[in-house]
Every structure is written in structure tokens, then in C-alpha cells.
Write a structure and sequence with these properties.
By secondary structure, this protein is α+β, with helices and mostly antiparallel strands. 16% of the residues lie in helices and 27% in strands. The chain folds into two domains: 78 residues, 2-Layer Sandwich (Pseudouridine synthase); 33 residues, no CATH class. The longest helix has 12 residues.
Length: 138
């Protein structure tokens, strides 16, 4: 599965796939987007198996490129979700920048908020849980 309209597979086992998601691709199928990770992986697996399963373990934003893991079995999806929930899987984020940024300490809120759709617009609702912060050095 490699080419301009395909994904690069970094690792494949009987339980999961690890892929390199390019920027510009959405993760889950959508009637409004031509390409999605889920649909492409499903088509790839359908060539090998009569009833393929694609389990979305985690997501990356459309504009974000990066490594993703997708389950090929429901049991693998459950196990991988558990590993993410208990933080047994470590995530690292790298940024590619142009030029040499100035050195600074950054603290950024990365918590999520639920949204409500009101008259075709998205409205942010306040979050009552503790917000997660990320700190890093530039």
C-alpha cells in the first residue's frame, strides 16, 4: 500500500497495522472526504480477508502527519485501547519547523472540550474535568 493515494505500512502483524498517516488525510470514513485512513486500510485488508476489520485505536488531526496503529481484530482493538488507557503505550510528538526557532519554554493546554451543534454551528461547552497541559522546550 504505497503511492500518492495510499498509505505507507511501517509494520504489519496478524493483530495490527502501523502506518505513516500523511497530512491532509482524515482518519475515519466520511461522505465529505475522498480519502480516509479507515477506508484505505479496509480496502487493503479486503484484498486479503473476506470480512476485514479496521479498529481505530487513536486519531490524528487531518492536518497532522504521523504514525498510527490500527487493529485488525476486535480483541486487538480492546487490548490496544486498554494499553492507551493505562498509559502503557508512550506517545511522542515531534515538530518539523523551518529555520531556527528562538529558545523558550512553552506550556499549552491540550485538553478537549465537547461540542454541541446549534443551528449548523459548533458551540464549545465548558469542561468540568481537569485539563491536561503539555510542557516542552524549544
Amino acid at each position: 500500500m504505497e503511492g500518492p493515494d495510499s498509505l505507507v505500512i511501517l509494520k504489519e502483524t496478524s493483530d495490527y497495522l502501523v502506518i505513516d498517516k500523511p497530512a491532509g488525510w482524515i482518519v475515519e470514513r466520511s461522505p465529505f472526504e475522498a480519502q480516509s485512513v479507515e477506508a484505505t486500510v479496509f480496502s487493503y485488508l479486503a484484498q486479503k480477508k473476506k470480512t476485514p476489520f479496521v479498529g481505530i485505536v487513536h486519531r490524528l488531526d487531518k492536518v497532522t502527519s504521523g504514525v498510527m496503529i490500527l487493529a485488525k481484530k476486535k480483541s486487538a482493538l480492546k487490548a490496544l485501547n486498554q494499553q492507551f488507557a493505562t498509559r502503557q503505550i508512550k506517545k511522542e510528538y515531534w515538530a518539523i519547523v523551518e529555520g531556527c526557532p528562538i529558545s523558550m519554554k512553552v506550556r499549552w493546554c491540550i485538553g478537549w472540550r465537547k461540542t454541541k451543534k446549534i443551528n449548523g454551528r459548533l458551540c464549545m461547552t465548558p469542561k468540568k474535568k481537569e485539563t491536561t497541559f503539555m510542557s516542552f522546550d524549544v
